[in-house]
Design brief:
- The structure is a single chain.
- The two termini are about 20 Å apart.
- It is globular, with a radius of gyration of 13 Å.
- The longest helix is centred in the middle third of the chain and has 17 residues.
- By secondary structure, the chain is mostly helical.
- Helix 1 packs across helix 2.
- Helix content is about 35%, strand content about 5%.
- It has a two-stranded antiparallel sheet with strand order 1-2.
């Protein structure tokens, strides 16, 4: 799979996992973020299922990040724009980011440069 295929895409920014500092590396994606094997294509209408091979602690964090993602995706597009992303970070307890840090995280996670982040990129 390429780094942007639906089966591997995601886990690159990982506010459920990367900021929490845990995860299972199945490969390294763009810019050094961990890449996970999801086993199925991404569909934002499907219930969230963590990728294969993550431990229970990481699984719990990813489920929490998915829940926050879906709450902050107000237009139900399956994507977070920069404004929704900042709100999601605050909901996850990242309130003390320095000026520009949220924007930096967004750019790092938005590896395909679309200006939005899907759920798998986020978790």
């Amino acid at each position: 799979h390429s780094p942007h295929s639906p089966h591997k895409h995601g886990g690159y920014g990982g506010f459920g996992v990367e900021v929490g500092g845990v995860g299972v590396s199945i490969g390294v994606g763009p810019k050094g973020f961990k890449q996970y094997s999801w086993g199925s294509p991404f569909n934002p209408r499907d219930p969230f299922h963590p990728p294969h091979g993550v431990d229970e602690h990481a699984r719990h964090k990813m489920i929490k990040a998915s829940k926050v993602f879906r709450e902050k995706d107000k237009d139900h597009s399956g994507q977070l724009d920069k404004r929704e992303f900042k709100k999601a970070l605050k909901e996850l307890g990242l309130n003390d980011l320095r000026k520009g840090e949220a924007k930096m995280y967004f750019r790092q996670i938005d590896t395909d440069g679309t200006g939005s982040i899907n759920e798998r990129e986020f978790v």
